[in-house]
Records
---
Amino acid sequence: MALEVNGKTYETDEEGYLLNLSEWDEDIAKVLAESEKVEMTENHWEVVNFLREYYNDYQIAPAVRVLTKAIGKKLGAEKGNSKYLYELFPYGPAKQACKIAGLPKPTGCI
Amino acid sequence: MNETTGGIEDGDGSGIVKKFMFVNRKAPYGTIYALEGLEVVLISAAFDQDVSMVFLDDGVYQLAKGQHTKAIDVKNFSPTYRALEGYDIEKLYVERESLEIRGLNAGDLLVPVEVLSSAAMGDLMKTQDVVIGF
Amino acid sequence: MLHIVNKSPFENTTLASCLRVACKGGGGALLLIEDGVYAATKNSIAGNVVRSAMGDIQVYALWPDVEARGIQDRVLEGVKMVDYGGFVDLVVEHSNVQSWL
């Protein structure tokens, strides 16, 4: 499968995750967010950018429990909880935010 | 992802906790064992079990610092071992003899580990409910 | 604890690693299967290693694999033969099992 944005083609898997994360940019992120019916705010970008950083450090997309904990550590307890993250990404912060961030589906997704 | 398990933040203590030991004995890139083993361990973390990882024989090479895989066009998954702590997998054991015969010591590894003698390793293995090798 | 080894001791150090950890840890059992059964042959280097480990660990070999490889007349004394049913019994009898891949 492939997505076309501004004349650029992005390959995705059958669930819509980007195949090549180095191709990621904010334009494709917005398109991926739309496909997830997520309207990106500053808080959304904060999580998406956090995920990209996490991936860059550890070469995996974190499980949601791990993401929650790590966000709490970095951005404070008011953001490091499921309620906050599910409000931003109602269909699962790990799944939706990872997709928008251009990361593979988190390991531990069953 | 089972996002419902992910929602548990304090571990409610329900269910039986078993001791799972994952024994890694293969070097990282020659075969797929190391990567598959690591993925299984990460997934196991979702089930709130007592998980430990053992590195024996060539498995100790999985933890070697300074892995650069660009030129062989394979994903370098060594940084992922540093993520284990965030998954609450903190029991990493390495057999001293496996290190020594390869000219390595704990300082050559990219995560903090507990170095054990063969005997201590054997004792630890006996206490496990489940031992899975990769 | 039951340890299972399925690799020939002549091409691979799995058996040596298993014995190093298992014997010093004390007790338990070793079951040799597939190419692992070659370790149960007498007058071989591997057989000598297995024999000296026998004080610490009870050694079994899977008879169908022994017979298939034609080593049945050269098996070390003290190695107990088991069939597939015996294999299952060993797994059941021990609190845990490690397959040394």
---
Amino acid sequence: MTSEFAQPTLRLTESQYATIIGNCYDGLPNEACGLLVGPLGGNAEPTGAVSEARPCRNVDASAVTYTVDPRDMLGAMRAAEARGDEIIGVWHSHTHTDAYPSPTDVRQAVDPAWLYVIVSLRDQAPVLRAYRIRGEGIAEVAVELDRG
Amino acid sequence: MAVEIKLPTVLRAQADGQATVAVDGATVGEVFNALVARYPGLRGNLLDDSGSLHKFVNVYKDDDDIRYLDGLDTKLADGDVLSILPAVAGGA
């Protein structure tokens, strides 16, 4: 993978981080999911900034798969549009495995520009990592927590 | 009648980078045909080989999923907004 692919750094506020982790624990025993809203840069790709982390329903209600409720996605799209932003990524939890994209995650990745956040709840402390997925390629991107 | 179609970011490259496209049509199917005629690269993302709505795409007429209306036969009125959303899914 080129270094260009492993961009941008995902920048979350403490509040957004807490929203994502809380949503993942709230979803147990099932996988949880949500959408990231943020600006696009001049290259029409995410800048890494997040304006809103929006928890969504997992319509699969499953411990091993997730599907974002399309009605929640419609709401996220409208909220993004109202801000002049876009949906720039998705998070979901892995309840019993690493914070790394599964073959299903790679096969079903929607948009090569998106940031894919995975939260592992396997261990005592949650582990949040972010990736880009393009074709079969996976590149981890850095995550910065803005402590304000 | 003119209908506005909102495209997700992933499909815009096949539509000259546009986020919204206005096309004419009295049903979702007619509108999709007009859209695909203008931007042929979108066809495989919207419709399957049999011409049905692709299973990984959700289409909303205003607040309603067209699968729960009349699918591609769903009637449209002037000023309706169609939102095309990719299915977002995965799993451990």
